[in-house]
Design a protein that fits this description.
This protein is α/β, with parallel strands linked by helices and about 190 residues long. It contains six helices and nine strands.
């Protein structure tokens, strides 16, 4: 039996301004044996018509995951460590409710398998005290897994935010997004 050894002081941080669009994170994610050679994260263009700026998209692991709330088959679960897992194969009915409901646009329905899949923060690695694959290969530091103190030493002009407002809905997440110093939440209209 494998023992879970999450380090409680280590957290996942995303800095969208640092993404250079190299796709190394996607390739590393696809190499994880638990993902079936599919990347569970994606690199997208912010506005391809206007800019080459890219941003990496990972599951934010919401405190109250709407993807799990809207699943009629109870296929999506959040564990005691705050990790929201991909749909359980035996339960997922491929309705795509989770895909539509996620405010961050993270879950994807993979047609060949008819299953919802998304980033699970490399649970197989992080539960054993190792960093997620994507964070180990990101050359620009857009993805970082470590302590707040380590990150603060590297980026003193930034602050980690994990509270997001979508209209009247406030969403708190396990994953942090780096913002300019002084920000306390991100408001999306």
């Amino acid at each position: 039996m494998q023992t879970t050894t999450f380090k409680t002081d280590e957290e996942f941080f995303v800095d969208p301004q640092r993404c250079i669009g190299c796709h190394a994170c996607e390739m590393a994610c696809a190499e994880c044996e638990t993902n079936g050679q599919l990347p569970m994260i994606s690199v997208d263009y912010v506005s391809r018509a206007d800019s080459p700026q890219t941003s990496v998209q990972v599951c934010m692991h919401c405190e109250d995951p709407v993807c799990a709330r809207v699943c009629p088959a109870d296929a999506i679960q959040k564990d005691e460590f705050g990790i929201v897992h991909s749909a359980t194969t035996a339960r997922c009915i491929a309705c795509a409710n989770c895909v539509i409901a996620c405010p961050f646009g993270v879950p994807k329905k993979f047609e060949p398998t008819k299953l919802m899949m998304k980033c699970n923060m490399c649970y197989d690695r992080t539960s054993a005290g190792r960093k997620p694959m994507c964070a180990t290969v990101c050359p620009s530091g857009a993805l970082f897994y470590g302590t707040r103190a380590q990150l603060a030493a590297q980026r003193p002009a930034s602050v980690a935010v994990n509270v997001f407002r979508f209209g009247r809905e406030t969403v708190r997440t396990k994953v942090n997004v780096m913002m300019p110093a002084g920000a306390t939440e991100l408001i999306v209209d």
